[in-house]
Every structure is written in structure tokens, then in C-alpha cells.
Amino acid sequence: MPHQSSQSAKNMPMRYFIGVDLGGTNLKVGAVSTKGEVLFRTEAPSDVKGGRGALLKKILNVIEETRHMVKGKRLSGIGLGVPGIVSPETGIIAQSPNLAGWVDFNIKDVLAEKLSWPLYVENDANAFALGEGWTGAAVGIKNFCCLTLGTGVGGGIVLNGSLWHGVDGFAGEIGHIVVEPDGVPCNCGSQGCLERYVSANGLVRMAQEGKDDILAAPLLKGCCGVDGLSAKAIADFARQGDPFCAGLFQKLARYLGIGLADIVNLLNIEMIVVGGGLSNASDLFLSAAREEMLKRSFKVPGHRIKVVPARLGDNGGIIGAAFIAFGKELH
Amino acid sequence: MPHQSSQSAKNMPMRYFIGVDLGGTNLKVGAVSTKGEVLFRTEAPSDVKGGRGALLKKILNVIEETRHMVKGKRLSGIGLGVPGIVSPETGIIAQSPNLAGWVDFNIKDVLAEKLSWPLYVENDANAFALGEGWTGAAVGIKNFCCLTLGTGVGGGIVLNGSLWHGVDGFAGEIGHIVVEPDGVPCNCGSQGCLERYVSANGLVRMAQEGKDDILAAPLLKGCCGVDGLSAKAIADFARQGDPFCAGLFQKLARYLGIGLADIVNLLNIEMIVVGGGLSNASDLFLSAAREEMLKRSFKVPGHRIKVVPARLGDNGGIIGAAFIAFGKELH
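ok -> C-alpha cells follow
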């Protein structure tokens, strides 16, 4: 068996890792091989409103379910991506807009007590970045960042091949770069943050602000109503040629380009990976964002950087979380 | 001689380094001890208009002058800070607003040919950051950045104790963070860059834009005229209570605060050092900038970061350039 790694000596089952991607809406869990293949995957609603205890129990249950579905391999560690600012060292959640009431909560200690495998926690966008770096769009790239454009915006920065956490674990908050100084108030306390424009929520808000234009827009008129608008509907209408909806994506692209230019001029990295639910509509905004970025960047770093859609889709968070468990063993 | 380092064995003279701070206006050169003390210092106008050859000759002359002024010590290396984007590896200047015509010029090779000591080149703001880290405001700090607020804005980022150059040496262009998306056009090709508001030039421009208010301002009225305005005059008037001039510093502070918040939210570093000529007026804007930054940053990294004036003043560039020569030998 010449290709076996040293860890899996003769008769020793191959290792695998479980990655848990805890989101405000869905809990995604998968078993991931040492090569980054997803061996099994399951998903359940997070049901945050059901309370912390219930969700923690659910996490333990899906881990158990996953473990039972993987035969003939040895579980060697579990990684958990958390939608908030969390210290990988202590496991304490310092801030989380989607898990209100979990602040100052040590999720690592509480879960580790019930688990027999090494447990690692990390911010979900950081985990996503590592996943894309391991088997996704940023394979072989040492200096890049990831944006996850979903309800809000997450970010992770990788420098010299490692996550840049900053001194308190708060680094990489790309969603809170200021792109409009007098702009829309943000939950973070600032205003005009990238997240307020370049996210599903931001897109819907911009659409609702243009209420009168929407009513005039032929495709939207009488369809779902202003209140029923979703980012997906806006994307569909834009693709069908609705000028108002296409215009919203142009606005989004411009703000994204400004944020990307700030990153280029500050960090001169190799790649920016754009993921998250909204990246399914990247055909509607990514090339315009790239153009805006180029207009606003120094030439060399602007032309050097690749702005690409994420490759792992919904599995990025799982694969990245598993990699954290794997990576920690590697070092 | 128990305190002597191993390099300066018995009868071997102590080492020193020469730091050259090449600016668009002045050429500053100093001899710096291994402890960061300035042993001798001289200054000459750069006279960029006199041509590249003449300025290169002047650089060699002031190095020679400096060398002759330091007795009993051994010159061990020369560091050169260049006002532009320069590759420390190749020595080629890629971009320089203040040294037009020097682009794609290998300043390192040309000077090294005439010098008998190791020569290192670096961007001037990066050199300044290293100087402040060595003996200035950021002593003992591993993660910080420096802004030099002068005619324009320079920036240098230090992560884990080393300059973050980015993959092409273009990182740290803090002056080109976008703070006003539809703002004033910038020489870099973008618009609304921090540098257009938070610099001596920016301040004077903002004053000139408020021409009618200036004419109404009691202190400025009939004093130096709108065209004769300087950042220093505006600062003096602001200190004397002129509300228009004080208001300009408030505007500057707000934009600086926005840029600082972007840095805080992206990098979660420990300190931001504010230097350059305009920092002589930091009493007029630094605390307001800090407040704006706090409003726009996440709490933990916002309260963690120290925003402080530079300590080395005019010598920062010299000391930092010398450190580059010293540091390269240390590794």
C-alpha cells in the first residue's frame, strides 16, 4: 500500500474529521477525509429560538449521526465554525449577531465535555476561508481573503498560509469596512458598512428604498410585492432584464469594489474569494465589482489580485471546520 | 568589558549604521548606533528638479560626510528610505509620486556600485514604522501600523514584528483607503482616498473649497489670503479659536477615524502610530479621530488599539532606514 500516509499504518483505519458549520439558520455537519472529501453530510435547522440547550443537544446528535454513517474510518477530531467572534484558544464567543444570548459563552468547554475527540472552534468565515484554501478556489494560495455574502457579510484573512486572527481574534471583519461615511446605520454601531449594501439583507433594503421604482418596474409589478422581496427574486428579475433590479446589483457591485480596493491597497494579497448564498448571483455583480476595484487600486496589486467565486459552495464551512481539526494535528 | 556585544570584540570598534531618508523635499541622513541613538545627522534639500544624477551624487556625498563625522566606530551597513513603492529585494522603484522619472529605476544597484557597505532599500513609510517600532512609540509592540501625514499619506504595517509588504511590496497604502466614495479625485486614479482629506494638501484644499467661509472667518480675513494658506497657518488659526479652521480639523479627524476603524476591523492590531509633519497638529484632531474610530469599530479591538503620535519626529525615517540595515544583519 505505497500511498498510505504514515498515520494509517497497516490495518489502521484511515482518519477522518467532522466539520460542523453552525449557522443562524442551518446547522450543517459533515465527515471529511484527510484529502478534504466529504464522506457524509447532514443538515438540520438551527432553530436558535428553541434555546441554547436544545441547539447544543442537536449539535451533539448530528455529530453522533455522522459518526455512525462513516464506516471503517477513525474519527480523529472535530472542528466547529461559529457565526460570531470566538477565541480559538479559549472557545469563548465574544460577539454573535445570530446567536443572541450566547455571548461570553464557552461553547468549546461545554461541547468538549460530551465528546471524546479533540474539539476546535473557529469563526465560521475563517473556517470557510481555510476550506477554500484547502480544496477550493484558493488551493496553493498563501495570501488571500474570503468574503461570505449571505444575510450579512463574513470575512477571513489568510496571510503566509495562516489565518490572521488579530490580537483578540476580531480580525477579518471585511463586512464592516466603511464604504459610505454617511450611510445606512449598521448593527455594529457604525454606519455605511459594506455589509449594509453587499449582502442579501442589503440588497432587499436597497430595493425597498426604491419602492416607487419597483412599482414601476414591469417585472416586479404585482408579482411578489415590496414586502415579499428576496435577494433571489431580485436576482431572478435582474437576469430577466429588469433594469431596476439590475441597477441594484450595479450599486452592490460598486460598494463591493470599494471594499475590495481597500483590501488590495492595504494588504496586496493574491486572491479574494467571494462565497456565501449571494455569490450564486455573482454573474450579476462580480465583474462590475472587479472593475470598480481596478479603478481604485494601485495598478500592480490591482492587476495581481484574482477575484473569484468560492468553489465549495455549501460545503465550504464544513470542509474548513474539519480542516481546523486536521490542521491542528498537522502542526 | 562585560556589556560589549559579541560583534564588538576586544579592540574592535562598535558598529553603526547610516540611515538615509530620501524625501521629495528634503534629504535627511544620519548615523545611528546599534541602540538606535542618532550619532550625527545632516540634511539637504532634495532638489528633485535638479535631476536624478545630481540627487544620487548628493546622496553619496551626504553619506560620505556622515561617515567622516563619526569617529571610532565601524560603519556596517546603509539603509535607504524611498518615497515610493520600491522592492526591497530588487531595489527597483515601481511607483513614486514625488520622484517622477525614477519609475522602474534600480536605485539600489546604482548606489551600491559606489558604496563599500551593504545597502538596503525600503519604502520610506515602512522605514518610519520600523523606526517607531525600534526606539519610538511602538517599542515592544508586535502588531501595529504607522501613518505619516505629510503632503500626502504614507503607511506601513507591522504584523508579528515584521513589515507586511504584501506579495508585490505594495501593501500598507493606508492613504488610499476610500473614505468618501464620490469624493475628491486622487492622483492614484481613485477618488475619495483618505490622503485627499487627511494630509497637509487635503487640509489646504478643504480650506480653499470653503473660500467664502474663510473670507468671513475673522482670523483669516486679510491675513495670508486663500492662495497663501498652509496647513501650519490653518493649525495656528484653529488653535487661536477660529471656528472655520477648527472645523476643517474636525472634518479631517472624521475621515481619519473612518480609515482607522477600517484598519481596526480588518486587522485587530495593537497600535496605530500617527507621524509626519501634520502630526505636529495632532492636538487638533487625534482625539476626535479616536472617537470616530471607536464609534465605528467593534468594541474589543476598538478599545484595545492605541492611537498615538509618533515619537521620533523628523528622525523616524533615518532611524528606521538604519534599522533595516541593522535588522538585515541580525537575521
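The domain at 141-310 of chain A is CATH 3.30.420.40 (Nucleotidyltransferase; domain 5).
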